[in-house]
């Protein structure tokens, strides 16, 4: 049997991790076990059990090894694990689609099942472009001059080539690709969720002017509604989202809501768009959809939009992933929604209440610029440098798995965390802030 030292050594020699250097790699732990909200990790000195405050990059909302999801996986794999979706259908896909249509607002009723969040966003943008082409054809035009999208500063929509162009081109993770990606229109980052009416009005005035100026070039408006994720865990004004809905209607644009990270309860409403009282033209879901068991995402639009595309040039939505509507993923997703719907509201309210009480006082900390808690997301913005190795070691020493980035120590944890586990998460986050502040100040005393 291989030791942890063996496994970590082989990993260092041959594996390339996400957003990681092969020449100057960061800390690495071996996962020995996972159950409920807990991971058992080994960095080479023996096993340590921690609460997973990342929910494996925000998707493991029911925790690990949930008996209902395990049962769904076993039942489906005993029938068939995959078949192509071209010219075929199957019960798990129909069951999942039926559930999605039941929970999404009208008129969203047509579902395209993709195989990851980034791919789903590619599908959503291709869908919007084809809709504009079909509209132009229906009016007698030979094509559409609309090729650009409007997005927000601070946005993140995925790592594949097309949607990288919709991520913040200066402050985002893909800025090195500037000049190679399609250039889109970026609106200012909207003001904070709690901003006063004047701030929202000023932002709306600027957004209206920008959209109006580029109205003949634009295909659609793309947003992470209410809460930007990888762009800084930034909660933003519902009034601004209402403005974008109005602008989409006024200028014949589709409004695409990237709810891969915000949907299915993460922000305190089932869909983040509900906070603004609006319905997007295209809703994209992922992450929590399968409860973290497999990769799957859904692109949901209206019958009218689907029909326009189907009547247009091409006669179909021109996309077809090999693993679209994978039966195993569909069966688990349907079981995940069955678990989620009766419990998410109470669970997420508890997450927000406990972490608000524990973390908001850190706004007075010398190493903290801000603390933001919304639904199942808690973020501490630092004024001191992030030392990943120090942060990771400190969190694990306090019984928590965290994965900070840039200037944020944050948690997007399983919905099933108990009050005690949430307090453990808060204690670990506080300890990380203290350690980073002390390191920055060159002291060993508590900040």
Would you kindly provide a written description of the structure presented here, covering whatever features stand out?
The chain is α/β, with parallel strands linked by helices and 447 residues long. The protein folds into two domains: 4-65 and 343-441, Aspartate Aminotransferase, domain 1, CATH 3.90.1150; 70-340, Type I PLP-dependent aspartate aminotransferase-like (Major domain) (Aspartate Aminotransferase, domain 2), CATH 3.40.640.10. The chain has helices at 4-14, 55-58, 67-77, 91-103, 117-138, 161-164, 197-213, 238-250, 303-311, 327-359, 388-397, 419-441, and strands at 30-35, 38-42, 47-52, 108-114, 148-152, 185-187, 218-223, 227-228, 234-235, 254-258, 282-285, 297-302, 368-374, 377-382, 400-401, 408-411. The strands form four sheets. It has a seven-stranded mixed sheet, with helices on both faces. Strands 1-2-3-15 form a four-stranded mixed sheet. A hairpin with a 2-residue loop joins strand 1 and strand 2 (38-42). Helix 3 packs antiparallel against helix 10 (327-359), helix 4 runs parallel beside helix 10 (327-359) and helix 7 (197-213) packs parallel to helix 8 (238-250). The two termini are 44 Å apart. The model has no long low-confidence stretch (mean pLDDT 96).
The biggest beta sheet reads: 7 strands, mixed
CATH architecture of the largest domain: 3-Layer(aba) Sandwich
CATH topology of the largest domain: Aspartate Aminotransferase, domain 2
Q: How much of the residues is beta strand, in percent?
A: 15-25%
Strand order of the largest sheet: 4-12-11-10-7-5-6
**Distance from first to last alpha carbon:** 44 Å
